Amino acid sequence: MNIARPDRRRFLQLAGIAAIVQTLPAGVIAAEAVPALRIGIIGSGRVGSALGTSWARAGHTVMFSSLDLEHDKKLAAGIGANARAGTPREAAAFGEILLISVPYGALPQLGKDLGALLKGKMVIDTCNPFPNRDGEIANWAREKGAGVASAELLPGARIVRAFNAVGAARMAEAAQRQGPRTGMPMAGDDAAAIAVATRLVRDAGFEPVLVGSLAAMGKHLMPGTPLAGERSPEDIRKIAATLN
Question: Mean pLDDT across the stretch 219-243?
Answer without folding.
Answer: 94
